[in-house]
Each structure stands twice: as C-alpha cells, then as structure tokens.
C-alpha cells in the first residue's frame, strides 16, 4: 500500500533520542501534515512512499529539534555589554540599569527576533523564555514559526511592563488566554527568583498553575550568595521556603541549582521537580556547578538551557551539550557520568519533558511533530564517523546545521533562514548597539 507523504528525508544516520541508544543507518524520515509518520529503511521507503519532496542527505545526521530550556531571548541585544563580572555586580551595575533605560516593546520584539534567528541557525526549535513584555516574545516566535514557551513574568517591584504583582498576574493571564490552544506558543508562570518575589505572589501563582496546569519557571539556588542571604534573612534555604509554599512538584522548573545538598537532591527527585541546567552561563559568572551526575542518578529530569546571550554570550545548544557532558565528568570525577547520548537527551527529550511537551516534541518518533534538524557530518572535522551521537556532542559545531523544520515547515534551508530577514536583523541589532553603548558606563 502506497504511503503519500509531504517530505521524505533520506539521511546517513538518524539519532531519534528516544529510544535512548538507537541509531538508524541509511534510513528515511517520512513526514506528512507536519508530523512524523514513519522511520523506514531506504529500500522499504522506495517501495512504499510517494513523496512530494524527496530529500537526499547522505552525509547528514537527523536529530530532534533542540530545546533551549532557559532563555532571556531579548537580552541578545545586550550581548557583550558587561563581561567578566560577578553575578550581582553584573546585574545591579549594568543589566538592570540598561533594562530600565531600554526595555520596551520594540526592544523585546527585535531582540527576540535576533535570538530566534540565532537559535534556528543552531538547530534549536523550541525555547523556554523569561522576560518582560512577553506578548512581544510570543508574537516574534509565532511570526517566525518558532516553538516557544513564553514566561508570564512576576517580580515584586515595578518595571516598564507592570506596576506590581497584581498587574504582572493580570497581564500574564490575559496573554495565556490569547495563546490558549496555539500550536506553537505555550505559556508558563515565570517568577524571577525567590529573592525578587515575595511569598504571597508565589502562593497565588501556584494556585493558578494548578488550575491552568502551567509550569512555574524560576531561578533557584543560582549562587552561594543567594543561599547565604536567604539563610541570614529568613533562616532557611530558598528550596525549603518554596517547599513550605507548596511549589515543589512536576510543574516546577528550577533554573541553575548550583548549590544543592544531598537531601535536597532527594527532595527534588521525590517531588518531580525539573532542573534546567545552564553550564556555560554558570561558568562565566562563577556561579558554581550544578551536580548533574548526582541529580541524574537520583532520577531528577535535567534539561539544558543557554540562559541569555548577555551572560553566556551565545544561544548555542551544541556548545551547551559539550560543556554539560565535560563539566559533569570533571565535577563528579567520573568520565562516564554523562555520556554523549545523555547530553543529547538533556537538550531534546528532557527539555520537552520539563515543558510538558514530551508527547509532541523532543524525539523523532512516529506521531510526533516534525521538529527536525539536519547536521552535516561530511566535513573534515567530523570524519570518520564511528558514533554519530558522539560527534554531535564532542566534535560538531552549530555551523554544521544546514536544515531545520518546525512542525514540518522548513525554517532553515541550506543554511538560510526562510522566515526571517537576516539583513534586517543585522541592521536592527546595529542600531540598538549604537543606542545602548551611548548610555552604558562600562563602555
């Protein structure tokens, strides 16, 4: 019986991420109406499939679209603004003043467009964001055909986006309703951190999160100073405070988590909390080391994020995979702590699971959305190929991504964006750079 499909991709290798250790050699990925319908050996595909587009990529490996589990996308316009500084100095003396001056609707929309372009070019098809003016983030992602979970920001103090917790919440709920049922845009509550959000707003968010079945995305235990300050001011560690407020559950997405005790790791595993690991940002800001090997052994789901380009300074998930794998080995003293396939899963199915999207994205399986990335292993730097998953983590660079599909729509074709204007993005970024540098004291 003939199978009619929109796209048939024949690749040298397919690494589906799930099942965990499977690699398909000389197989075809069949896509119809934006979804994966089958993965077939080449000979069988030739017999069974009639495709509108038949794409032959013999030197490529196909992988699931990468999930960037923690971003501040619009902060791409602050890339390199203030480097080589401790976290609180960086925030208080440079980033917060720059945000107060510049962050408005246009900044967020154009900064997010720049970030989306970078992410697509690097194989990321979904990002989980936390920033002001989230309606602009959602609009930019929707227009670019990008998948996003948009954070409904909450913070105690007033900003250009809202005057206080009540307005943050009402605006967030309005945005959630606007995108309810959207095929690409989801929402999550995004209280910034325990030190910037008080108990009552956190309680209210938790109630709404239960009612609406939304994640809660929060910076947590990012630095030793954060934990020490909480102990001095409240007499308890931030995680204990969130537990008392009832926030520890599979809805909680805890970002960074560099300061953890053994009993806290057990608590995270028991309550189903997801950890969003940002290794390169943590290294650059000297925030500490997330105990990824211990978390994984305990059964905690660990996903990968880049953080914002202002503190990383890129949105390169290939770099994060490599750093995460190498750092976990060094921190644990165990060279087998996090394998290449573990790192790839952290950037794909684990990220999807954290966002509640594991039935839709995160792996190449029949029935799932066709969020697919083609990576060229034909270049000298990745030859010969013994284990494609190993190359993806330890040898590849994002420049080897050639083609990207999101829900079956091609958003990168032979290295060129199809839904965004690269020249326009470059011009917009340069305009912002000139504006920002005129007011920053570090320049």
Written overview of the protein:
The structure is a single chain. 39% of the residues lie in helices and 24% in strands. With 443 residues, it is an alpha/beta fold. The chain has 16 helices and 16 strands. Helix 12 packs across helix 13. It is globular and about 70 Å long. The longest helix has 17 residues. The relative contact order is 0.17. The mean pLDDT is 96. A hairpin with a 2-residue loop joins strand 2 and strand 3. Strands 3-2-1-4-13-14-15-16 form an 8-stranded mixed β-sheet, covered by helices on one side. A 4-stranded parallel β-sheet has the order 5-6-7-8.
Globular, elongated, flat, extended or rod-shaped: what is the shape?
Answer: globular
Rg, rounded, reads 21 Å
| Average pLDDT, all residues | 96
Q: Give the biggest sheet.
A: 8 strands, mixed
Count of extended strands: 16
Structural class comes to alpha/beta
End-to-end separation in angstroms reads 66 Å
Helix percentage: 25-40%
Tell me the fraction of residues in β-strands, as a range.
Answer: 15-25%
Poorly predicted regions are none
Query: Can you list the strand order of the major beta sheet?
Result: 3-2-1-4-13-14-15-16
Counted by DSSP, the helix tally is 16
């Amino acid at each position: 019986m003939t199978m009619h499909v929109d796209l048939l991709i024949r690749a040298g290798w397919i690494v589906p991420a799930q099942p965990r250790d499977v690699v398909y050699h000389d197989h075809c990925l069949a896509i119809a109406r934006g979804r994966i319908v089958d993965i077939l050996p080449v000979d069988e595909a030739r017999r069974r499939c009639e495709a509108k587009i038949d794409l032959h990529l013999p030197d490529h490996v196909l992988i699931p679209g990468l999930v960037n589990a923690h971003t501040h996308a619009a902060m791409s316009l602050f890339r390199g603004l203030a480097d080589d500084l401790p976290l609180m100095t960086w925030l208080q003396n440079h980033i917060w003043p720059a945000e107060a001056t510049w962050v408005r609707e246009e900044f967020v929309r154009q900064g997010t467009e720049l970030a989306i372009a970078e992410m697509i070019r690097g194989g990321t098809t979904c990002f989980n964001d936390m920033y002001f003016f989230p309606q602009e983030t959602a609009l930019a992602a929707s227009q670019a055909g990008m998948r996003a979970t948009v954070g409904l920001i909450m913070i105690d103090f007033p900003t250009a986006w809202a005057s206080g917790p009540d307005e943050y919440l009402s605006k967030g709920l309005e945005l959630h309703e606007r995108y309810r049922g959207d095929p690409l845009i989801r929402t999550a509550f995004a209280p910034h951190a325990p030190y910037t959000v008080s108990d009552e707003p956190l309680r209210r968010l938790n109630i709404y999160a239960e009612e609406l079945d939304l994640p809660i995305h929060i910076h947590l235990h990012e630095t030793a100073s954060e934990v020490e300050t909480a102990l001095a001011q409240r007499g308890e560690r931030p995680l204990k405070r969130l537990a008392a407020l009832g926030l520890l559950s599979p809805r909680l997405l805890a970002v960074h988590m560099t300061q953890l005790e053994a009993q806290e790791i057990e608590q995270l595993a028991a309550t189903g909390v997801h950890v969003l690991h940002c290794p390169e940002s943590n290294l650059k800001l000297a925030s500490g080391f997330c105990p990824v090997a211990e978390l994984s052994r305990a059964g905690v789901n660990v996903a990968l994020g880049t953080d914002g380009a202002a503190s990383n300074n890129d949105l390169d998930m290939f770099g994060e995979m490599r750093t995460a794998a190498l750092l976990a080995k060094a921190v644990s003293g165990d060279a087998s702590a996090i394998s290449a396939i573990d790192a790839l899963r952290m950037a794909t199915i684990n990220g999807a699971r954290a966002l509640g999207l594991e039935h839709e994205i995160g792996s190449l399986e029949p029935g799932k959305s066709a969020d697919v990335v083609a990576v060229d292993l034909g270049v000298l730097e990745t030859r010969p190929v013994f284990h494609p998953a190993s190359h993806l983590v330890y040898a590849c660079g994002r420049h080897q991504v050639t083609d990207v599909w999101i829900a079956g729509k091609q958003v990168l074709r032979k290295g060129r964006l199809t839904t965004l204007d690269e020249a326009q993005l470059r011009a917009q970024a340069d305009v912002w750079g000139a504006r920002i540098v005129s007011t920053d004291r570090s320049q």
